[in-house]
């Protein structure tokens, strides 16, 4: 589904219409910025998973006591029974057993996918910011003209 962008002559709009557009753009930018932050956090989580597999699942760790994370702040003692297979959270509460090699590939692919999404989202945010700046500039000019008319 493709969207065709409409061009509107901002100078032809009233101050009230410009304020409405400005508020809409502010809201969209806030939402997009939050989404950007959430994607960055997810990417950091996947990087941490990748690091954990690379450094924590080794032959020398097998059978030794380790701390197993149940949540981000709750760990329980355990031992690593197998260094060749790990349980991977594939999303929405589903876990899959994978080989360490497959798990590394899975997390690397996720990191790359999120990176591409972040680049796309950054372009959108920059475009919206440019639109917001244009609306603010026209609104500022209209306010100046309006205040000059009242002064005269």
Automatic annotation (TrEMBL):
Family of the protein in this entry: Belongs to the prefoldin subunit alpha family.
Alphabetical list of InterPro entries matching this protein: PFD_alpha_archaea, Prefoldin, Prefoldin_subunit_alpha
Name of protein: Prefoldin
UniProt superkingdom: Eukaryota
Key words of the record: Chaperone, Coiled coil
Molecular-function annotations in GO: unfolded protein binding
One of the GO BP terms on file: RNA polymerase III assembly
GO cellular component, one term: cytoplasm
SUPFAM superfamilies in UniProt: Prefoldin (SSF46579)
Pfam families recorded: Prefoldin
Coiled coil: 15-42
């Amino acid at each position: 589904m493709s969207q065709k962008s409409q061009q509107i002559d901002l100078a032809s709009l009233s101050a009230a219409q410009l304020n409405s557009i400005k508020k809409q753009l502010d809201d969209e930018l806030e939402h997009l910025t939050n989404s950007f932050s959430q994607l960055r956090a997810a990417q950091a989580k996947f990087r941490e998973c990748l690091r954990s597999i690379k450094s924590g699942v080794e032959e020398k760790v097998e059978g030794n006591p380790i701390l197993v994370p149940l949540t981000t702040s709750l760990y329980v003692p355990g031992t690593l029974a197998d260094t060749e297979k790990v349980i991977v959270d594939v999303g929405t509460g589903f876990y899959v057993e994978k080989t360490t090699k497959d798990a590394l590939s899975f997390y690397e692919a996720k990191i790359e996918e999120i990176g591409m999404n972040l680049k796309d989202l950054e372009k959108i945010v920059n475009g919206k910011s440019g639109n917001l700046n244009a609306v603010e500039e026209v609104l500022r000019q209209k306010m100046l003209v309006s205040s000059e008319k009242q002064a005269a």
